[in-house]
Amino acid sequence: MNLQAKLIASALCLSALPFAQAADFEDFGRVVRVTPQVEQINRPRQECRTEYVQVQQPAPQRSVGGAIIGGLVGGLAGNQVGGGTGRSVATAAGAIAGALVGDRVDNSDTPSSGGVQEQAVKQCRTVDHWESRTSGYEVTYDYRGRNYTNIMSYDPGERVRLRVVVEPMQR
């Protein structure tokens, strides 16, 4: 062979070398042990309850309109009685008596004190709520007499599918 043909053959062999170096294929390994990887997660939540408490109510406002009208009517009626200084005394007494009667009539339905009333009060608090969650699986499997361990996102069952890569060793 001439030198040029030898160089071309050598170049072809060298360019094909990477294709001949590595080969990969699928196989299965026997699962020896699967251990779930569990993590704790806190999801706080609100717990609420309703309590009933007694509250003192303020006394309601009393109206003064009845006392004013009663005082005017009583004063006019007292002015009709007597004469001289007795008329002034009768007018004052009539106004006082009329004001008292008018107040009682106007505020007869109004209680004198507020009383006690039950009121609902909502009490809330935040409570920790811990949950366990599986984040992955530590899988130990046997392949051709050797044990290997990997973390996987799922439980593979009794056997695990493997991709096997074969490469020649470098010297």
From TrEMBL:
> Which residues does the UniProt record annotate as the domain Glycine zipper 2TM?
65-105
* Name of the featured protein: Uncharacterized conserved protein YcfJ, contains glycine zipper 2TM domain
InterPro entries (alphabetical)? Bact_OM_lipoprot/Surf_antigen, Gly_zipper_2TM_dom
Q: Which UniProt keywords apply?
A: Membrane, Signal
| Signal peptide feature range | 1-22
Q: Is DNA-binding found in the keyword set?
A: no
Keyword Lyase appears in the UniProt entry: no
GO cellular component terms attached to this protein's record? outer membrane
Provide the species name.
Duganella sacchari
Query: Which spans of this chain does the record mark as coiled coil?
Result: none
Q: Where in the cell is it found?
A: Membrane
